[in-house]
Amino acid sequence: MTVKQKVLIIEDESSIRYFMQTILEANGYDTLTAATGKEGIALINSHCPDVVLLDLGLPDMDGMEIVKELRKWSSMPVIVVSARGDESDKVSALDMGADDYISKPFGTSELLARIKVALRHSAGEGSNPKITPDSRFTVGDLVIDYGKCRVTIEGRDAELTQNEYKLVALLGKYAGRVLTYDYIIQQLWGPNAKNDNQILRVNMANIRRKIEKRPAEPRYILTEVGVGYRMADE
Ligand code: CA
C-alpha cells in the first residue's frame, strides 16, 4: 500500500475549502484544512504536508506572509489560490517563492493537474523529472534535446536561434509550472537585464511560428496573461 500524499488547504471560504477537500479525497489524497493563517502555520509545523494550497486573502493575515515565512526553512510546494484578475498578487506570490497559482473559479482537472506538477517537481528537486536520462523532454510532437541543445517538432529541427532555444529549454525544465516574465528575463539575460517584456514577446512570437500549428492558439507554450509563460507537460 502506498502512503497517501497530504495536502493542506488554507482557505477561509468554507464552500471553496470543502470543494477542494472533496475533490482531493476522492482522488486519493489525505487532506488537512485550516480557515485562518494561524491554524495553517500550526498545521504546517505539526504535519509537514506534501503540498499547501494557500488562499492569499485570509482573515487574520496576508497569505503572502505565510509563503515568506515558510521559504526561510522549507521548499515545501505552495500553490497560491487567487482571485482571477489579481495578476500583481500572483506575480508577487511567485516572486516570494510560491511554486504556482490557480485562479478562482477553477475546475477539478485544473486543481489536480497543478497539484500533480507541484508534487513531481518537489520530488525532482525543482527540475522536470520527465526529462529522461539521455536529457530529452517530450511533450506531444515537441522534443527538447538538452544534450544537443536542439528542439524538434514532428521529428524535424525547429531551427531555433540560440536565445529562442534557451527560452524553450528553461520553460521545459519547469514544464507544467508558470514562470514569471521577470524570472525568465533574469535567467536568460542575467540580473542586470532590463525587465522589458517586449524582447521576450518577440522571441516567443518567433518560437510559436516555428513550433506551433496555430501560433494564436498555442498547444505547447501557454501565455498566462500579466504573469508569464507555462509550458504544457502533457
Ligand atoms: Ca479568502
Mean pLDDT: 91
Our Rg estimate from Cα atoms comes to 18 Å
Helix percent reads 25-40%
Got a strand count?
12
- Largest sheet: spatial strand order: 2-1-3-4-5
Along the chain, the helix and strand elements come as EHEHEHEHEHEEEEHEHHEE
Shape: globular
Query: Can you summarize the main beta sheet?
Result: 5 strands, parallel
Bound molecules: calcium ion
Q: Could you list the spans in which at least 5 consecutive residues all have pLDDT below 50?
A: none
Strand content: 15-25%
Q: DSSP helix count?
A: 8
Task: Report what the structure shows.
With 234 residues, the protein is an alpha/beta fold. The protein is 40% helix and 22% strand. The chain is built from 8 helices and 12 strands. Strands 2-1-3-4-5 form a 5-stranded parallel beta sheet, sandwiched between helices. The protein is globular, with a radius of gyration of 18 Å. Bound molecules: calcium ion.
Entry summary:
The chain has 234 residues and is an alpha/beta fold. Helices cover 40% and strands 22% of the residues.
Question: How does the SSE layout of this entry go?
Answer:
Layout: E1 6-10, H1 14-26, E2 30-34, H2 37-47, E3 51-55, H3 63-70, E4 78-83, H4 87-95, E5 100-104, H5 108-123, E6 136-139, E7 142-145, E8 150-153, E9 156-157, H6 162-173, E10 178-180, H7 181-189, H8 197-211, E11 221-224, E12 228-231
The structure holds calcium ion (CA).
Calcium ion binds at residues 12-13, 55, 57-58.
